[in-house]
Amino acid sequence: MPGSTSHLIAKFLDELTMDNFDVVSVKILQRVNANDSQILYHVTQLIVEKAVKKHGQTDVCVHLCKEMVKKVSGKIRDTITKNLKWSVISGGPLFREHPGEVCQKELEGVTVSITTALARSSKTSLDSLPGTTRHPEIRRIRLIRFIRQLSDLTAESKVSEIITSRAIVEKWIATLLDAKDAEKLVTLSMLLDSAGPRWDASMKMMKARMNSCFVEMTHIAQTNDDARLRALLQVCRIDLPHQ
Known about the structure:
71% of the residues lie in helices and 4% in strands.
């Protein structure tokens, strides 16, 4: 990605608010549409980073995703990633592939950061830790809020504008459902508690997958010695409406 383009788009994203959205989002899309799929992916990374790094940015980032899925040029094509029909993905459908993938990497990264912070402090929860030590937990909370709002958007959108797909939700669950990693399970519990009801309501065939997930989580909760994790898993199972 050319440095000047990267810096310019990052500058526009930093300036973007709901008040100036109509003007600044056009500038972002103009730069995106004048470039290639590599830039599109990088911009997606910048959007997610803005949502999780800065307080109060979730709404504007989700709104930008909504605009991009509708307005990214069909001239931007990915010749490597193929859909199920083995045709080249381009434009909005190509952009729809990216937020979920970036969020998955962020979910994995934040759990590693939290585990590392806890190991260094010899604590079982970040709640009692001071200052910058809690940054990974804050990122996790903001990331889950961003995913929830993307899921809300999915429930309200036309099929052609859906961002959070069943396939990416399956990947998130598979990544985080790890009985040997407490922070992955905590993250999954928080994610299901926040976004799970949206997935259950808006995605066909998710009920069976969610149910199997809860069966496994219940087993983990019953056999795990971590009281915090056990409580989170149990509360998550109770709170979700289809149980």
